[in-house]
Amino acid sequence: YQAKMDFALKLGYAGDQIQAVLNKLGADALINDVLAELVRLGNKSESEGQSSANSTTSTLVPRGPCPKEIASPELSLEDEVVDNSDNLRPIVIDGSNVAMSHGNKEGFSCRGIQLAVDWFLEKGHKDITVFVPAWRKEQSRPDAPITDQEILRKLEKEKILVFTPSRRVQGRRVVCYDDRFIVKLAFDSDGIIVSNDNYRDLQNEKPEWKKFIEERLLMYSFVNDKFMPPDDPLGRHGPSLENFLRKRPVIPEHKKQPCPYGKKCTYGHKCKYYHPERANQPQRSVADELRISAKL
């Protein structure tokens, strides 16, 4: 009995486990039978340990869905960044352009400025600046009608609207060029210009302004009292409006509807659907590709 006990102890089995096997098989049992029983007991206890561990961990799993854990990293990042106003670009609004557009080119409608500001405030923007010439504070005249003029005072008190300087010299009004204020502030703050003006004269002044105006100009339309910027500010193949207004893109562009024809599509760059295989390639039609390969 003692020899079998010592032999099993040398193999690494526990004393109480060896005693249980010897009591079960008897002291006269062969050493091979004792080892077989010890192996069987070892496997059984190991499997029981695993099942108990699984049951323990299963009880630790929280009941009910947790949105941030279930959502993909892409979506959780998107939700986190969308609510972060630090990721939104500053907005610089051409007040004269917006007001005249809302007034249908017939009058200076201050309500149009308010509608544009409200649209960006609803999107979560906090850094909004509107430039309007100071002479618009003067009394409305028949040749330059101004409606809802009190809105200008209200936005000025809210530190959203800024009047560009103007003065009178010998009865003649001297005004500063408000477009230069708009482009300069947007460029310095790395923001967005809201206007339907292309600022061609300022594009010729500085090459860096030219590139900036081409990439950061947000045009718009008014449908009655509804301010509507386009969903694709830089064209069909450019960023979405959500990404255009943000410093870091949050909504992947590949969420656009994929082309049903896939690689067999022959529309090339004219196709309005998304082509993942053309992401880093010039989007030419099949005919154009054939012509180029034939020339080569």
From TrEMBL:
Query: Which segments carry the region annotation Disordered?
Result: 45-69
Show which residues constitute the signal peptide: none
Q: Which terms are listed as keywords in the entry?
A: Endonuclease, Hydrolase, Magnesium, Metal-binding, Nuclease, Zinc, Zinc-finger
Q: Which GO terms of the cellular component aspect does the record hold?
A: cytoplasmic ribonucleoprotein granule; nucleus
Q: Which regions are flagged for Polar residues bias?
A: 48-60
Which superkingdom, per the lineage?
Eukaryota
Q: Name one Pfam family in it.
A: RNase_Zc3h12a
Q: Which InterPro entries match?
A: Rege-1_UBA-like, RNase_Zc3h12_NYN, ZC3H12/N4BP1_RNase_Reg, Znf_CCCH
Record flagged with keyword Zinc: yes
Q: Which cofactors is this protein said to need? A: Mg(2+)
Q: Where are the zinc fingers (C3H1-type)?
A: 253-278
Q: Which residues form the C3H1-type domain?
A: 253-278
Q: Per the UniProt record, which residue ranges are transmembrane?
A: none
Q: Does the keyword Zinc apply?
A: yes
GO molecular-function terms, A-Z: hydrolase activity; mRNA binding; RNA endonuclease activity; zinc ion binding
Family named by the database record: Belongs to the ZC3H12 family.
User: PANTHER family under this entry?
Assistant: N4BP1-RELATED, RIBONUCLEASE ZC3H12B-RELATED
- Protein name per UniProt: Putative ribonuclease ZC3H12B
Q: Give the source species.
A: Gavia stellata
Highest classification ranks of the organism: Eukaryota, Metazoa, Chordata, Craniata, Vertebrata
